[in-house]
Amino acid sequence: MSVTTAPALAAVDPREVLRAQVKWRWLETIFWLATLLPFLVAPTYLVLGSQIAITALFALSLDLIVGYCGLVSLGHAAFFGFGAYTAGLISKAGWGEPITGLLAAGCAAMVLGYLTSFIIVRITHFALIMVTLGMCLLLYEVANKAHSITGGDDGLQGVHMWPLLGHFQFDLYGTTAYGYAIVILFLSFLVLRRLVNSPFGLSLRGIRENPRRMPAIGSPMSNRIRTIYTISAAFAGLAGGLLAQTTEFVALDALSFQRSAEVLVMLVLGGAGRLYGGLIGAMIFMIARDQLADMNPQYWYFWLGLLLIAVIVFLPNGILGGCAELLARWRRKA
């Protein structure tokens, strides 16, 4: 019996499955090459493109805990805003070097994520939603009251960035900002892609699917949750730092509930638990909002809500999830 089952066990070796998932596919190459097209075909939309890239990185950070670990958060903007204010304050203090300022923003958000992760592992379900929302609102009010430091409702002004790598000046056309944001997004995606397609990422899926069974098989679930929550906070801080550096301004809404809700909507729209779902969701949401607000400034929320309802009704697993189901059906018929 052991002789007959050995080939079957080898065929489903999880390490081989993970190696197969890490391999690049031609669609992924086309997708990332297409991010360079705005430089040629839409140079007037580079500012919007940089905002989309920053929001996509923010969505990726949230997908780590929502899509892969099953932890729903309505306060992820706390780390985004914390990173934004960190990068902005460092620049305002006289150090405007972009890369080191960005790393400082990510590290600051990572520390905040690590400290709050000890609270996160103790609660579940609806209580988790309320606690994450409460932490975000708490930071929002702290930033609002600390007017002498953060600028309060007026926002953090006086942020000035030095030229990127000493040569590329941030301009009003968004050329440097878009290239900078795309490079950071791509590098972050490479790290997160390797992370989720690793044994650690596989354990996160186990926590999402059956949190009660994971401790029974010897998996340190609390440590896993704290780790991924800290990593997620760090990348959210990177996204916030990018926003502060490319716009040279930090508004109070970087810590708002609306920003947390919007990025969660983007994940649902694109498909949670798929890294490209956050990217696609951010692109569609930001472009739709820009175009609908331009066509109908008063009622654009109506059309955006109609789009979201249509996606949820016809594609309950998001756009990428729906495409995957259609592809699977086509393969079965073929």
Polypeptide structure, described:
Helix content is 74%, strand content 0%. With 334 residues, the protein is an all-alpha fold. It has a domain at 34-256. α14 packs across α15 (275-295). The longest helix is centred in the last third of the chain and has 27 residues, at 221-247. The protein is globular and about 55 Å long.
- Along the chain, the helix and strand elements come as HHHHHHHHHHHHHHHHH
- Major pleated sheet: none
- Helical run tally: 17
User: Which spans have pLDDT < 50 for at least 5 consecutive residues?
Assistant: 1-10
**Can you count the beta strands?**
0
What general outline do the C-alpha atoms trace? Answer: globular
Intertermini distance: 35 Å
- State the helical fraction: over 70%
Range of strand content: under 5%
Q: Give the rounded overall mean pLDDT.
A: 87
Kindly name the structural category: mainly alpha
Rounded to the nearest angstrom, the radius of gyration is 21 Å
Question: What does this entry show, briefly?
Answer:
This protein has 334 residues and is an all-alpha fold.
List keywords for this structure.
17 helices; globular; disordered N terminus; 334 residues
How are the SSEs ordered, and which strands pair?
Layout: H1 2-11, H2 14-22, H3 26-34, H4 38-41, H5 46-66, H6 77-92, H7 98-120, H8 125-145, H9 147-150, H10 175-196, H11 199-209, H12 213-216, H13 221-247, H14 257-270, H15 275-295, H16 300-314, H17 318-333
Helix pairs in contact: 5-10, 5-13, 5-14, 5-15, 6-7, 6-8, 6-13, 7-13, 10-13, 11-13, 14-15, 14-17, 15-16, 15-17
